[in-house]
Amino acid sequence: MKSFVCQVCNHIAFDEAPVDCPVCGSAIENFEKDDEAIQSPADPGNLLETDNMHIPVIKINTGCSGDHDNTCTSIFIKVGEIEHVMETEHLIEFIDLYINKKYFSRVLFTAKKIHPEATLRISDTSGTLSVIAYCNTHGSWRTKIKLDE
To answer: How high is the pLDDT of residue 124?
Structure first.
């Protein structure tokens, strides 16, 4: 897959580099093409501990409670089946979210004070959701899921 990485904030854009980074605002000149920017397990059928600490786990609930009119999707994201360490020298710095390869949100994490998890409610109810988790030691890891299945 064609991927471009912002050298300022590590945001990944798909298919083409944006004129300005949607996360940090950097110009297109700060993007480098890197088709291997996203890590993958060596054997998807036999995940290693490293894989299980980095691959995002996504749980979807259609419809939202509260003031919403049930035309939204509730997304719970946890980085890894095995919880990742959150130390300054080794942590999940952020997760980026995309619908149909288009970026729409970043959730930042800090060392020691937080678990690498997030819950979001989005207005989209269909399409492909991609979540990319960025580890400051092991790079970017992605999970994709269809919202309407």
So the answer is: 85
